[in-house]
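We were asked to recover a plausible sequence for a given structure. The inputs and outputs are reproduced exactly as logged, with field labels preserved.

PROBLEM: sequence recovery
POSITIONS: 189
GIVEN STRUCTURE:
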């Protein structure tokens, strides 16, 4: 048991080092990636988004020593590709082996998705903490719990549900514009 814990900590340390050489920045990136994974699984209406995000990160952690030798690119993009495969497993769709995600084999769709997720993370990080928390909080619950969660959120903020929708719409619009601009820049690189 103790050995497993030490091994897991070692894998976690390797993942943080892969994300960024500065431990604090790596921890921030890790948390941003985890939150974006949770959001993706929520948007895809998965029943346990936090567990799926953790499963994704666990799968990547075990691969980091080999990835550091062979993978070229943004670690976040790779992590999101693993999440995409996990989502396929959960929904019973076709799966893609991790080996096919090696740098020499990406498909156009994979590249576009990686760029989009990278842009989403970048754009979320550009939002004010209030706006980021609001948009992530707004989409935080599964479909069946959304209405009561959003009612509670509006009440905590001291605004009507309609005002909450308007604020979220404006933030989402800003995010969409940022992502489109980012994708345009990424596409020209």
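RECOVERED SEQUENCE:
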């Amino acid at each position: 048991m103790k050995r497993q814990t030490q091994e897991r900590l070692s894998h976690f340390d390797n993942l943080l080092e892969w994300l960024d050489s500065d431990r604090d920045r790596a921890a921030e990136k890790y948390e941003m990636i985890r939150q974006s994974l949770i959001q993706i699984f929520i948007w895809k209406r998965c029943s346990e988004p936090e567990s799926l995000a953790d499963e994704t990160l666990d799968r990547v952690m075990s691969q980091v020593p080999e990835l550091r030798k062979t993978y070229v690119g943004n670690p976040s993009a790779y992590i999101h590709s693993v999440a995409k495969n996990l989502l396929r497993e959960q929904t019973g769709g076709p799966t893609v082996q991790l080996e096919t995600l090696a740098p020499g084999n990406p498909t156009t769709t994979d590249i576009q998705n990686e760029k989009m997720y990278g842009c989403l993370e970048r754009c979320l990080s550009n939002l004010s903490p209030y706006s980021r928390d609001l948009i992530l909080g707004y989409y935080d619950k599964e479909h069946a719990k959304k209405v009561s969660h959003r009612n509670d959120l509006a009440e905590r903020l001291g605004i009507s549900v309609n005002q909450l929708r308007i604020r979220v719409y404006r933030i989402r619009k800003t995010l969409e514009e940022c992502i489109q601009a980012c994708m345009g820049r990424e596409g020209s690189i």
